[in-house]
Fold this protein.
Amino acid sequence: MKYIVAILILIAVTMACTTQSRKENQGVPSKTDSLVNNAASVASPEYLAGAKLITKYDCLTCHSIEKKVIGPSYLDIAKKYHYNEGNVDNLAHGIIYGSKGIWGEVAMTPHPAIDLNEAKEMVRYILTLDSLKR
């Protein structure tokens, strides 16, 4: 009986903490919200699908819009590569198969589950961020 009461108390405390945490975070945009919400102000509407795909996959683990995390920021990528289909193809290939040495010693993790069209959509979005350079 003691164990049942202890477990019930533990569940109640956990639920109370979770509810409080949700209340504290209301109105505070997450990384995902920020990327998608920011996208509308810096990218052409036809490229917003790419921003949503970035949030769907694990891209925000290593990248952000303006700051280097593990990999380069999306803004730095947009500064380095002009928007053209050759760069879109090459960068999409790097997303799917990975790369090393372009931005330093840390390798870009391969993402074979991302299909080529999705990877190209993400790259097209990233390369439209060059409007932030100004």
Summary: The longest helix spans residues 2-25. Helices lie at 2-25, 31-42, 48-56, 74-80, 85-97, 116-128. The chain has one domain: 30-133. The radius of gyration is 20 Å.
